[in-house]
Structures are given as C-alpha cells and as structure tokens.
Amino acid sequence: MTRLEFLSYVKNEFKRTDKDSEIYEALDDTLYDLTTEHDFHVHQTEQSISLIADTYEYSLTSYSMSMLLGPVLYLDDTGDADPLIKLSKASFDLRFPDLTATDFDKDEPQYYAVYGNAIFIAPFPDTVTTESILVPISTIATKLVGDSDTPAFEDQWREVIKFGVLFRVWTQLGDFGKSQAQDNLLLYQRGIEKMKKIDKSKDRGPLMAMYRGI
Predict the structure, then answer these.
(1) The pTM of the whole model exceeds 0.90
(2) Which member of 87, 92, 96, 146 has the lowest number of beta carbons within 10 Å of its beta carbon?
(3) How far apart are CA 34 and CA 28, in angstroms?
(4) Burial (CB count <10 Å: 0-12, 13-18, 19+), residue 95
(5) Residue 190 CB: number of other CB atoms within 10 A?
(6) pLDDT by position in tens, the chain (length 214)
C-alpha cells in the first residue's frame, strides 16, 4: 500500500478532509515508533569494515539513523568468524585506558563498544591483510515523501499502522477526540502484541519476518 493509498484507507474511517498533512505526519511517527520503541527491525544490512593496522576506531555508516543489532563479527584473514564481546563505552575505557600506549599488546580483536557514530575495537592488530569486522545494522524508518512511497511493513499489518495513525490524529484534536484516541491506542497496542507473537512463532530470529525485502 502506497503513501497515497494509505491516506485514503485512513480517511475511510476518519471522515475529515482537512487533515491530510496531519495524517501523513502521524503515519511517519507511527512507523518511527514501531522501528524504535518496539524493536521491529526494517531494512537490515551488514556494514563490512576492513581493518587498518594500528587502528581501533572506525566510522559507522549513517549510524545516527540506525540501530546496531549484533553480534559484531571479526573475520580473520582465513575467513573464520568470531563474535566480539560488547562493552559499554565506559567499561571499554576502563578495560583499555590507553590504546595509544607504545607497550599496548596488539592482537586479534575481542571486544567492541559503540559511541556516537563510531565503533571501537580492542585489542587491534599491528598488521593486517584481509581482516574485517561485520556490523549488523537495522535502519530506522524514514519519512515517506512521494505518493508512491511504501512502508517497509507488509500490507497485512496496515490495520495496526492505521490504529497508530488514528490514535495520533485524534489526540491532536484534544478533548474532542479523546475517546477515539484512547480506543485506537488500545487497538494499536493489541495489534503490536499480535505482530510480535506471529513473528516469534515463525522462529526466524527477532522480529524479522514481516518486512519487505527480508
């Protein structure tokens, strides 16, 4: 269902014709809510980062609009993969207080931390050939702009998204829409639980089964 089709779908129930922009904004907010607050991961990908000798910090592509899924994998020069241990940046700094020290033991990476738009690894090798790390990332839903743009979720979940949109639009109307907002919020929350249960029953990993392109 496209952005324009979704507008018509919502307006079949929300009869007002002067709130198109509010409906579009509520649609974007609902999709953002599903991918951030409820951990529905859309547009999953892996960023492959080639290691550089004597380097412990690497930039993450568009991480400000993404979520790190984990685990991060270290691939040695033979192609063997080992998961790295995740640390908070504070714990990472306590464990490795001076990565630039001349006597720092350099070896294959075992730990990582994410801070800002960067990933930090330790230890780190002083020589490399084809070593790399794989960072699994899920992109947060971005705004739908064109009339033909489509949400990442399959059409089977359009009603759940509609409830989220109606909750937000009715809420904007204040006391006049309070009852309708509460009703749609309840339906939205129930729909989210159903999405999670159905996806979990498919046993395809965490919340992965109902998205386009997966």
Answers:
(1) no
(2) 146
(3) 10
(4) exposed
(5) 12
(6) 899 999 999 999 998 889 999 999 999 999 888 877 776 766 667 788 999 999 999 988 754 445 666 689 999 988 899 999 999 999 999 999 988 887 788 889 999 998 888 899 999 988 888 899 988 877 666 788 899 998 878 888 899 999 999 999 999 999 888 999 999 999 999 999 988 887 666 544 444 434 443 3
